[in-house]
Amino acid sequence: LLNMKNSKSIMEYCVEVNRLENVGDVMRDKVLADLFETAKDPIFIIKWKEIYQDAETILDICEDLANTIESILVKQA
User: Fold this and answer.
1) How far apart are CA 35 and CA 44, in angstroms?
2) Closest CA to 14 of 49, 50, 64, 75
3) Computed from CA positions of residues 45, 51, 54, 55, in that sequence, does the dihedral angle turn out positive or negative?
4) I want to staple 66 with a disulfide (CB 3.0 to 4.6 A). Which of 10, 14, 20, 34 is the partner?
């Protein structure tokens, strides 16, 4: 961010992070549906549901950071 000549490529990375977060949402929904349809052990379900939710939380944080960086780039332009 110190060198604004790279702002275009940084913005492209931010857009890609947002795209990947959307893909993550779709994947999470699918694997959770599959988990509840196929798994029988409640402990197994709870454990994997938490793992999938934590992964989604991490993706959300990455998206928030990308949005912050985009905002900085727009203000610096």
Assistant:
1) 9
2) 64
3) negative
4) 14
Q: What one-letter code names the amino acid at 28?
A: R
pLDDT tens profile 10-63 = 999 999 999 999 999 999 999 999 999 999 999 999 999 999 999 999 999 999
As a whole number of angstroms, the distance between CA 52 and CA 69 comes to 26
CA 17 to chain centre: 7
Residue 48, token pair as written in the block: 């994997």
Q: Specify whether the CB–CB gap between 59 and 21 falls below 8 A.
A: yes
Between the alpha carbon of residue 54 and those of residues 6, 28, 58, 61, 75, the distances in Å are 32, 10, 6, 11, 32
